[in-house]
Every structure is written in C-alpha cells, then in structure tokens.
Amino acid sequence: MEIRDNRIDGGKAFDWGRTSEAYAKYRDIYPDEFYDRIISRGLCIAPQSVLDLGTGTGVLPRALDKYGAKWTAADISREQIEQARSLSEGMDISYISTPAEKLSFPKSSFDVATACQCFWYFDHKKLMPALSDFLRPGGSLLVMYMAWLPFEDETAGASEDLVLKYNPGWSGAGETVHPITIPELYLQRFEPVYHEEFRLKVHFTRDSWHGRMKACRGIGASLSAKEITEWEREHKELLNKTAPQEFDILHYAAFAQLKKKN
C-alpha cells in the first residue's frame, strides 16, 4: 500500500510492501537489553492482553511471545502481515492488516498497547481516543524507538550519507539521542509515567548491515528498481572498502510509557 504524508520524506511515496522480504530478513535486530527493558516494566507478560500497532513483520510480539501475553498485532501493509504470519508459526498471535486508525475492538479489550518504530506515522487525533477506549483503566501505552547514531558511528554515518545521495528528502537521517515526543493531546486521557533513552551496540556483518539499510524507508520502500540497484552497488563497495566482515553499530533506544487515566 503506497503512503504519502507531507510530514515524512517531504511527501515522497513509500510502500513497506515493496521491502517486506528484506524487512523480515534484516530488521529483526533488537538486542536482548531492548526487550529486557520492556519486561522489567512488567509489560507484555502473562496474563496481559497486548495490542501491537504498526507491527511490521511482527518483530515485537514474536520476540516476546515466550512471556505469555496474548498478542493482537496490526499493520497497514498486507505484505508485512503475510511475512509476520509466516514467521510466527507455532505462536498464538492474531494478525490484522488494517490502518491503526481503523481498528475496532470492544472497550477495555487490552492491558497494554505497544508502538515500536511507527508512532509518528499515525493520525493521533483519530488514534488517541480509540486507544483510550481499547485499553482498560490503568492500562499502558508503550512507545519505543531504536536508531543508529550517524554522528557517533562512522559506518552508520557513511551509509546514511549514501541513502541521502539517492533520496535527499529522506527524513530518517540525522538521529541524535532524545526522548520520544508524545503529542500533547494524549495528556487528555493518559499520564506519562516513564521515559528512558540509552545507547546500545547492535552487531552486524557486512551483508546484514547492507540488508538493514536496504530495508529502510529511504531505499527499499521508496526508490525505483534502478535506483536501488545503483545504491546497492555503491553501498557494497563502500562497506568492502571501509568495514570489517563483522562490526557493531552504535544505536540508541528510547521508551515512553503512558498510563490511561481512571
């Protein structure tokens, strides 16, 4: 499904369905310490019922399935959901292919709602009231994000520069460590209770880092086949010249937890 949003990439169209196979293979990269932060908050564990928004290929519910929560996961992209179902064999995870703003559940259906790497895509005027209805009193909304740090990691910076060469309007560039921004309207029905930002290293090979970069919105989800081929050639040459076979990329993670007011 093609998406255009003037807040993102200057309105350039992107479609996660075009990169779903690469997304499934290369974007399941959160280290254990990322997930440990979630569990340590007492979230996404049995017997909770959890709604995962913008689930992509189901990375979050698949990783946390072993903790016993009952997961429902939604994404706007049919192709992403197809990959998620394929990767979730043997897990009791319910997947829905629909925009987050069009989800419909009975009131107080969930203990927790999660949004990882996707919160800025949503129409919050529509989503916030719906989330408030879906969550039980005292239920939590947990927003998460992880990104490489291009000004602190040389390899990440060089790869990012090459993305910008092919897609100058890509708005995913230039990340620094900062708290997640929560739209003020959420304060009408939610209370912020926790936020945290921390650096962490993520391990890659040349191939997996190349795949991770290709699967980003600025390349695989938005460029033409010819542009992607040219970018791939240049990026592989860059990594062969400057990066060892295996290396760590410095990232930061950010969490923001809000609780529904009673």
Distance between the termini: 37 Å
Helix content: 25-40%
Give the structural class. alpha/beta
Radius of gyration: 18 Å
Choose one word for the global shape: globular
Question: What about the largest sheet?
Answer: 7 strands, mixed
Task: Provide a descriptive summary of the structure in words.
With 262 residues, the chain is of the alpha/beta class. Helix content is 32%, strand content 26%. The protein contains eight helices and seven strands. The protein has helices at residues 20-26, 32-40, 59-64, 78-87, 124-134, 154-166, 206-214, 225-242; strands at residues 49-53, 70-75, 93-97, 110-116, 135-148, 190-205, 246-260. It has a seven-stranded mixed β-sheet with strand order 3-2-1-4-5-7-6. Helix 1 packs parallel to helix 4, helix 1 (20-26) runs antiparallel to helix 7 and helix 7 (206-214) packs antiparallel against helix 8 (225-242). The chain is globular and about 55 Å long.
Which descriptors apply to this entry?
globular; 262 residues; alpha/beta
Layout of strands and helices, then pairs:
Layout: H1 20-26, H2 32-40, E1 49-53, H3 59-64, E2 70-75, H4 78-87, E3 93-97, E4 110-116, H5 124-134, E5 135-148, H6 154-166, E6 190-205, H7 206-214, H8 225-242, E7 246-260
Parallel strand pairs: 1-2, 1-4, 2-3, 4-5
Antiparallel strand pairs: 5-7, 6-7
